[in-house]
Amino acid sequence: MSNPFSMNGGAVVAMVGKDCVAIGCDLRLGMQALTVSNNFPKIFSYGDAYLGLTGLATDVTTMSELFRYKVNMYRLREERDIEPETMANLVSSTLYERRFGPYFVSPVIAGINQRTGKPFICGFDSIGCIDFAKDFIVSGTASDQLFGTCESLWEPDLEPEDLFETCAQALLNAVDRDALSGWGAHVYVITKDKIIKRLLKGRQD
Amino acid sequence: MNHLPEAWGRPRDDIYGAYDHQYVSASNPNQHTTSPVVTGTSVVALKYNGGVVIAADNLASYGSLARFTNVERLKQVGSHTVVGASGDVSDMQFLFDEQLEQLIISEEYQNDGHHLRAKHIYSYLSRVMYHRRSKFNPLWNVLLVAGWDDGKPFLASTDLLGTTFSGPALASGFGAHLAIPLLRRVCPDEAAVANITREQAISVIEECMKVLFYRDARSMNKYSMSIISGEGDKVEIEHRKDIQLKQQSWKFAESIRGYGAQVV
Amino acid sequence: MSFLATPSYPQQNVPGGEPTQRHGFNPYADNGGSIIGIAGDDFLIMAGDTRHTAGYNINSRTERKVYRLGEESSLVLATVGFGADAKWLADTMKRAVDVCFPRLSMMKDFKFQHNLKDMTVSAAAQFLFTILYGNRFFPKYAYCILGGLDKNGKARLFSYDPVGSYSKEGERRAAAGAASSLIVPFLDNQVEFKNQYVPGTQGMTERPVEYLPLEKVEMLVKDAFTSATERHIEVGDGLQMVIVSAQHGVREEIIELKRD
């Protein structure tokens, strides 16, 4: 009830495929059990890196804007886009700066490294410990459900379209069993030269 | 010194502080065990090809005080079974000396050639434990039942909640943390029992008792062991009492710094 | 002062009455594990892992959670939660459904009283509700899934909460226990085809639900448990499956799961 991570609800999932990655989120924003918005995306784009944020909605917004600032500064200084791996370390150190008064978020990063062409995903706890997974990352109030669906639906080396379907089904079926997530979804499929963003309707309850 | 009966058997106030009268108050509502008082620590047991070995040390602790050093925590019940108890010693004595004694007397009194085997004793004990927990008046023990049943070794556990489970290697209390890994190394599953000899089983159990003495502060270096061996319908139970721990080596202690993780 | 005022002195026992009892002993524990049941048209699979836990300890790797209620009967009960209560429920159901000791039994056996006819699934379902709700004020802390074949050889499946709530219509699939939150959305998707649409209909036509063949259901059960084993520490060691089929009778199978 007074757990900041589950006051607003939300879910994010990222998956690796063959030369591609997918990242998806739900659209709900709630105050406890009351839904106040069904258009609250939790994925933010920073050039080549995509950042998903679940947890306390105010921190989701704050962090997404903080990283917009930080990534813009990086781009001006370096005159190039930030790589997903670098972004991961930026997120980690930013979170750890607040070690004893953390932002209540569980971030997820997905992207393709434009230099190496390698897909990259990772997740974090709220104080910046990085989880470099080779398969998928889940976060949010539907994380248990997402672990179940991802672990049983995902397989290695999926082509972009199959990865989209797997990611979408894993997300949709997981959020349908979580009262605090759902109300539509966004799924991005990222390949080296193309990004497809799809809006999924999903159950509206 | 206070020689009044209510002070008998209690730690001296001048040394251990005032006695907590919550434990034994004379009047007031009738009380149940809400926490154990005098306790026995781990019981460990392992099946082998032709029987079961079970062991428990002879210490009864009163908190951190090593109160009694000659307590027998293994009891032979009938001709096929040995029960080992950890936890509250008075509850153990109630079970061993009152309940199980009476059970065997009334069963043998029939003189019908039928004898209670390990499975029956276990069934009885687990039902008593579950019944008592359901009355909110638990017997504060973990019991291991070892025996020979139906031509096979038998080993199972029941606790103060009436939870029941069985396995080829079981240990209660601290043993669940320290002895189980050692036991499961030689006996990972039921199939492995066929490859374990009596001597092997005894030496693994001895090793467990030693490790427990090293690290369990509520244990002692004197213990009892029972070996239940069978062949077909024949059962033989060997009790070894007052076993002293052998070949202790405290060499390792020299190199330990702090809690053990520190290397220099 | 009303007679409702609570006395400030310790409550004395009423002579001849039940003694007053209130203190800190916790009569429940959580012994982990998960169970699922899936019904086909004329068969059903009930499954559970065989790990028995207490906190981070593994008590046993070989404790079964799925019970057949009588050797002749198609009734199968799976229970998970507090091990002692779960086992008590299974024993009580077994005793009620099957003939064991009609003379000694406190509860009069159904079969003995009903001309040696087997209890139907729906009757067993209602009976289980009665037992669970009978313990409403000191609940048996176990989640149950009950399955069996009805008199037409069709599969029926019922699932319960600890105080007995269940649906008389039954259901097609159910999951309970430690990893139920991981397994349920997977079964939604793969058994009831939730979020699946007929290709080419622009997501307007839902994929119709149909009964799955036995081989497919067996595969889903194994997938569900290997996945749950991967991500839940209280699930693993072994997978016990009881397959009840109108054609081939009852078969039990135990396969290995990861032990880490």
Write a structural description.
The complex is a heterotrimer of chains A (205), B (264) and C (260). Chain A has 205 residues and is of the alpha+beta class. Chain A has four helices and twelve strands, in the order ββββββααββββααββ. Chain A has a single domain, classed as Glutamine Phosphoribosylpyrophosphate, subunit 1, domain 1. In chain A, strand 8 and strand 9 (130-131) form a beta hairpin. Chain B has one domain (40-245): Aminohydrolase, N-terminal nucleophile (Ntn) domain (Glutamine Phosphoribosylpyrophosphate, subunit 1, domain 1, 4-Layer Sandwich), CATH 3.60.20. Chain B is globular. In chain B, helix 4 packs antiparallel against helix 5 (198-215). Chain B has helices at 13-16, 89-109, 118-134, 175-186, 198-215, 251-255; strands at residues 38-40, 43-48, 51-57, 60-62, 65-68, 74-77, 81-88, 141-149, 152-159, 164-166, 169-171, 222-231, 234-244. Chain C is α+β, with helices and mostly antiparallel strands. Chain C has five helices and eleven strands. In chain C, the strands form three sheets. In chain C, strands 9-1-2-10-11 form a five-stranded antiparallel sheet, covered by helices on one side. In chain C, strands 5-6-7-8 form a four-stranded antiparallel sheet, covered by helices on one side. A two-stranded antiparallel ribbon of chain C has the order 3-4. The longest helix of chain C is centred in the C-terminal third of the chain and has 18 residues, at 214-231. Chain C is globular. The relative contact order of chain C is 0.19. Classes of the chains: A alpha+beta (205), B alpha+beta (264), C alpha+beta (260). The B-C interface holds B 28-30, 32-34, 130, 133-134, 136-138, 157, 161-167, 176-177, 180, 189-190 and C 10-13, 19-21, 23-25, 27-29, 31, 52, 54, 57, 59-63, 82-84, 87-88, 138. Chain B: One of its GO terms (biological process) is proteolysis involved in protein catabolic process.
